[in-house]
Design goal:
Largest sheet: 8 strands, parallel, barrel
Function: Catalyzes the decarboxylation of orotidine 5'-monophosphate (OMP) to uridine 5'-monophosphate (UMP).
Structural class: alpha/beta
EC number: 4.1.1.23
Pathway: Pyrimidine metabolism; UMP biosynthesis via de novo pathway; UMP from orotate: step 2/2
Bound molecules: the ligand O=c1ccn([C@@H]2O[C@H](COP(=O)(O)O)[C@@H](O)[C@H]2O)c(=O)[nH]1
Distance between the termini: 21 Å
Helix content: 40-55%
Number of helices: 11
Keywords: Decarboxylase, Lyase, Pyrimidine biosynthesis
GO molecular function: orotidine-5'-phosphate decarboxylase activity
Length: about 240
Amino acid sequence: MSTGRLIFAADFADVDEARRASLALQPHLGLVKIGLELFVGAGPQALAWAREAGLPVFLDLKLHDIPATVERAVDRAVALGARMLTVHAGGGKEMLARAVRCAEAAGDTCTIVAVTVLTSLDDADLTELGVDAKPDAHARRLARLAFDQGVRAFVCSPEEVATLRVELGPTATLITPGVRAAKGSDDQKRVATARDAVARGADYVVVGRPIRDAVDPVAAAASLDQSVREALAGRA
Ligand SMILES: O=c1ccn([C@@H]2O[C@H](COP(=O)(O)O)[C@@H](O)[C@H]2O)c(=O)[nH]1
C-alpha cells in the first residue's frame, strides 16, 4: 500500500467523474474512499477503475445488520478487492467478530474498520438518540467493544482520536474524517484540521468536499498531504 495517509472521499454520482478526479489526485493519496453514493449508483464498477490503477480502495459501506448478513457482505467486498471496509461498531459483538473472521478467512487482504460515533453527531444528537454519554466516552466504549472482537482499525472524529489512542494503544489504526479548517461550514460537527488530527494520533485522514469542491483540487490535496506528512514527522 502507498505510504500516503490521505484518503480521498470520492463522493460522486458518476464513476467516470470519480475516476478522473481520483486519478489526478493519486500522487497525494494513500487510498480512495468509495462510499454509499457511488456504490449504490454503480455497484462493483465503482471499484474496478481504482483496482486497475493500483489505487487501494477504502470501501465505506458502514455495514450495520445481523451477523450473518454482514458476514456475507464482507465476503463479497473482499472479492471486489476492497483493502478496508467499514462496519458500524454499534452492530454488536457477534457481528464485529464475524466480520473480522470472515475477512481473515478470505485471505486477510481487507481490514475491517469499525465506525464509532459519526462525525456529524454532537452531544445534543447523542442525547436525542438516548445515548447517555458524550461522544468521546461513547466512541471509546464502542471502540473497546470492537477491539475486543479483533477489530484493529477505527473511524472516529479528530476530537476523540487522542482518547482512542490511549484506550487502544499503538497497534490500532485510527482514521479521522471531519477534517475542516473551521467548525460550522456544513454537516460535520466534530472537526479539526488534518494537521491537528494527525498530531493527536490519527494514522489516516479522510477528506472529501474540501478537496472535491476546491477551485484547484490537486493543490488542495497536495497541501493536505504535506500537512499530514509534517504532523507525522513531528510525532516521531
Ligand atoms: O463518522 C464518519 C464516517 C464517515 N464519514 C465519511 O467521510 C467522508 C467525509 O467527507 P467530507 O466531504 O470531507 O465531509 C464522507 O464520505 C462521509 O461519508 C464521515 O464523514 N464521518
